[in-house]
Design a protein that fits this description.
Blueprint lengths: L2 H14 L3 E2 H8 L3 H16 L4 E4 L2 E3 L14 E3 L1 H7 L10 E4 L6 E5 L2 E7 L8 E6 L2 E6 L1 H10 L6 H10 L2 H8 L4 H11 L1
Parallel strand pairs: 5-7
Antiparallel strand pairs: 1-3, 2-3, 4-5, 6-7, 8-9
Helix pairs in contact: 2-3, 4-5
Length: 195
């Protein structure tokens, strides 16, 4: 397979998928030592030419959408303040907040010149999200019940107006079902806030 054909195959891959990992590019090019060096150079050239952007180590996209970084930390979902904005709570713009069960470093990271926030969460609490459309993409986003639990779990500030809005929107049966997976202290705290 010639170099031009490799490039064509890789460009097709970027047209099909919003996020492409280095392993997929490596499979197209081949896995021998010489080919590994070539695929790394190929990626570098695509980044330098501005055809693709690096989202995270080993993950690339051709799109200007930093929320796509959520797919680099699977299993993961967008949550906390970011989820609140997806659900139309509050007007302020927020950076993507990614909750992941992967061993990723907590904190703010730069992705394509913009910030994202990574928060680690125990795998047993990785539930309560659905895919929601924003722009051209569908993202995994915590539903309002899980977002509320995560806000309390991570000790995020919830002002009075927000709390009133959340109380009106929460499905209490779903909330109680979710809470059954958490320790008693957190359950009691959340139920007290909801009372």
């Amino acid at each position: 397979m010639g170099k031009k054909k490799h490039l064509g195959e890789i460009e097709k891959l970027f047209m099909k998928s919003p996020v492409v990992d280095a392993a997929s590019i490596s499979r197209i090019v081949g896995s021998r030592k010489k080919e590994k060096q070539y695929y790394k150079q190929l990626i570098r050239n695509l980044v330098i030419k501005g055809k693709v952007k690096r989202l995270s180590k080993g993950f690339y996209t051709r799109h200007n959408e930093i929320s796509l970084a959520v797919f680099c930390f699977k299993p993961a979902y967008l949550g906390l303040q970011d989820a609140l904005s997806f659900h139309d709570f509050g007007e302020q713009e927020t950076i993507p907040v990614i909750l992941t069960a992967r061993m990723a470093r907590n904190g703010i990271r730069q992705v394509s010149g913009a910030n994202i926030l990574i928060r680690r969460i125990d795998k047993k609490y990785l539930f309560g999200y659905k895919y929601m459309k924003q722009g051209s993409f569908y993202f995994p986003v915590s539903d309002i019940e899980k977002t509320f639990i995560d806000m309390v779990y991570f000790r995020e500030k919830i002002d009075t107006d927000l709390l009133i809005s959340i109380k009106k929107s929460v499905d209490k049966r779903k909330l109680e079902s979710y809470l059954s997976r958490y320790p008693e202290r957190l359950r009691a705290k959340i139920l007290k806030i909801m009372a």
